Structures are given as structure tokens and as C-alpha cells.
């Protein structure tokens, strides 16, 4: 079958189309013929080699979520699953392919397209639990840093339901206007210039400028980092946090890996069925153009999620 693999770590053109054997579902797994493949920030981080120490090697097939039709089931699963449309989480890879196996899957409501399912699935759940991790409370002021990505647009929608303020950082006026339509009340430049003070910052960028955002927090403020698409923060970033010790600030990281699967499934299903909550599909590209999709992410052109189709 056709897949896209990382043949060289680094630039986007290190992604190449390859032929690989069709995977076989193991116990508790389904085999899905993919109709839509979500292109996520973690895919780009892996491809760049940022997480090289985690054991990723050339030949790795990226992609953590797909949607499509079940064409095979492994031991322990009901054969009636065959023929049903499913969203599935494939883990740290395996999704950029015509077929994929997964043990974490959910039925897709008839009202939801496969493209929308991969735009909501992981991103919506991560945004939900990141806000919970930050102990976000009704009436607080929230800043979403890097809000134009798929997790960011989800975080804005969720925070807007009960926040006093939802500020966002973005790279253009046009993106800012689109984020306002999703619930943002303030649009800032990437440095979040100004004197704004926030109770919660959901940081989807990290990178060298992360320490500057401690100054943007109110007393007892909480900053949660979700991913490192902007690179790792400086090794001494905690020094800036300690310089603000009189404000009793909190710094946290968040990964959905720590959330019980049943909780993730419950939240994802609720979001799939919530007509007022939606993913944003930036563009749909052929699977063959995965490298082009990654280049668009590297260039900062993406609003929401790019979806690949075999």
C-alpha cells in the first residue's frame, strides 16, 4: 500500500511516498481504510528531528489520527465493526497511509464528515484537558498563544464559553478576525505586546520566548505548555519564573498521554456530537502532497488543520 515516511529528518522534503506492506490488526485493533488523515503539529516536530532522542528513525510513518471505514478487526473485537465509519488515534505514527491500525477508535456520527472528525478529534480533547489542567474557572482571563493551529482554535472555542477574556496571539490581522468569530475577544501580536494580565495562558508554541509570558500572568496565574512546535524553551527559563515568586505563579506541561483513555473517549464523543463546537479544516491535500502540507505548517500558513486524503 502507499504511505508517506520520513526518509530524512529536517526539512519538509524529507517526507517521501513509499510502498509498504498492509498492516494487520492485532488483538483489540481495527484496520481502517483511511478517508481522511489529520496533519498535526506533533508530526512536524517528529519530522524535524526535535524528538530524535525518543527513538524515531528514518522510515517512520507519521500521523496520529485518521478517519475512514473499518475493513478488518483483530482478536477480541466484534466482527460487526466492519463497514462502520470510525475516527481512530494511531499513536505516534502510522496514519499517513492508505490503511492504518488502531486500538483507540470511536464511531463517527452521520452528521460529521471524516475531514471534520480528524480536525476535532485529538485537538478538541487536548484543548479541553489543557484548560482543565490549568484549573481554568468561569470568569477568568485566558490567553491562547499560537491560537491559529487546530488545538488553538479548539481552546478558543472552549474558553469563550465561560471566560471573562479570551486573548490570542497570531501572525496576521486576517487570522485575528477569524479567531474573533470563534470567540476571541482580544487579538495580540506574537509577542503579546502590552500590559495585559491573564489568569491562564495556554502556550502551544514554547520556544525561546516562553519565559517572557510569565510577566503576562496575574498573581496565582498558571501557564500550561502543550507541545514544542516553536522549539524547546531556554534551559534557564525557570529563573524567570522564580523572579516572579511573589506572584505565586505556576508552570505546567500537558500531554494527553496522561489522561485515562475512557475520559478521552468521553470528551471526544461529546465534541463530535456538539453542533456548536467544530474543527477548522485549512485545506485538503492528496496523501502524496504530505511534504507540501508540512511546508505550509513550517511557513506558518495554516489556520486549523490540514487534512490528507489517499
Question: Would you tell me the overall average pLDDT?
Answer: 94
Question: How many E-type strands?
Answer: 15
The name CATH uses for the topology of the largest domain is Quinone Oxidoreductase, Chain A, domain 1
Low-confidence stretches: none
Q: Give me the CATH superfamily of the largest domain.
A: Medium-chain alcohol dehydrogenases, catalytic domain
Termini gap: 10 Å
The sequence of SSEs as H and E is EEEHEEEEHEHEHEEEHEHEHE
Rg, please? 19 Å
Overall number of structural domains: 2
Main pleated-sheet profile: 7 strands, mixed
Provide the structure class: alpha/beta
Could you please describe the fold and organization of this structure?
There is one protein chain. The protein contains seven helices and 15 strands. Helix 2 (114-133) crosses helix 3 and helix 2 (114-133) crosses helix 6. A hairpin with an 8-residue loop joins strand 1 (2-6) and strand 2 (15-19). The chain has helices at residues 41-48, 114-133, 150-160, 173-181, 237-243, 261-273, 290-298, and strands at 2-6, 15-19, 30-39, 65-73, 85-89, 99-102, 104-107, 141-145, 165-169, 186-188, 198-203, 217-225, 250-253, 281-286, 305-309. The model has no long low-confidence stretch (mean pLDDT 94). 25% of the residues lie in helices and 27% in strands. Strands 3, 4, 5, 6, 7, 14 and 15 form a seven-stranded mixed sheet that branches. A six-stranded parallel sheet has the order 10-9-8-11-12-13, with helices on one face. It has a two-stranded antiparallel sheet with strand order 1-2. The chain is an alpha/beta fold and 310 residues long. The protein is globular, with a radius of gyration of 19 Å. It folds into two domains: 2-111 and 275-309, Quinone Oxidoreductase, Chain A, domain 1 (Alpha-Beta Complex); 123-256, Rossmann fold.
Amino acid at each position: 500500500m502507499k504511505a508517506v515516511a520520513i526518509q530524512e529528518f529536517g526539512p519538509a522534503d524529507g517526507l517521501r511516498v513509499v510502498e509498504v506492506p498492509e498492516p494487520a490488526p492485532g488483538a483489540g485493533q481495527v484496520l481502517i481504510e483511511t478517508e481522511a488523515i489529520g496533519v498535526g503539529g506533533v508530526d512536524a516536530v517528529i519530522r524535524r528531528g526535535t524528538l530524535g532522542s525518543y527513538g524515531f528513525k528514518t522510515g517512520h510513518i507519521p500521523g496520529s489520527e485518521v478517519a475512514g471505514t473499518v475493513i478488518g478487526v483483530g482478536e477480541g473485537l466484534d466482527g460487526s465493526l466492519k463497514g462502520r465509519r470510525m475516527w481512530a488515534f494511531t499513536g505516534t505514527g502510522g496514519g499517513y497511509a492508505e490503511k492504518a491500525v488502531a486500538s483507540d477508535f470511536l464511531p463517527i456520527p452521520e452528521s460529521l464528515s471524516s475531514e471534520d472528525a480528524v480536525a476535532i478529534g485529538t485537538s478538541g480533547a487536548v484543548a479541553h484537558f489543557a484548560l482543565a489542567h490549568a484549573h481554568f474557572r468561569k470568569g477568568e482571563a485566558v490567553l491562547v498563544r499560537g491560537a491559529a493551529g487546530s488545538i488553538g482554535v479548539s481552546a478558543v472555542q472552549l474558553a469563550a464559553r465561560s471566560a471573562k477574556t479570551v486573548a490570542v496571539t497570531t501572525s496576521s490581522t486576517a487570522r485575528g478576525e477569524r479567531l474573533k468569530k470563534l470567540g476571541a475577544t482580544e487579538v495580540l501580536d506574537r509577542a503579546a505586546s502590552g500590559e495585559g494580565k491573564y489568569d491562564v495562558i495556554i502556550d502551544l508554541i514554547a520556544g525561546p520566548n516562553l519565559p517572557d509570558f510569565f510577566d503576562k500572568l496575574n498573581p496565582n496565574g498558571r501557564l500550561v505548555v502543550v507541545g514544542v512546535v516553536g522549539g524547546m524553551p531556554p534551559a534557564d527559563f525557570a529563573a524567570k519564573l522564580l523572579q516572579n515568586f511573589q506572584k505565586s505563579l505556576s508552570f505546567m506541561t500537558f500531554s494527553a498521554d496522561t489522561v485515562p483513555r475512557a475520559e478521552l473517549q468521553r470528551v471526544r464523543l461529546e465534541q463530535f456530537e456538539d453542533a456548536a463546537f467544530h474543527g477548522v479544516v485549512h485545506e485538503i491535500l492528496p496523501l502524496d502532497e504530505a511534504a507540501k502540507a508540512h511546508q505550509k505548517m513550517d511557513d506558518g500558513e495554516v489556520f486549523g488543520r490540514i487534512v490528507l486524503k489517499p
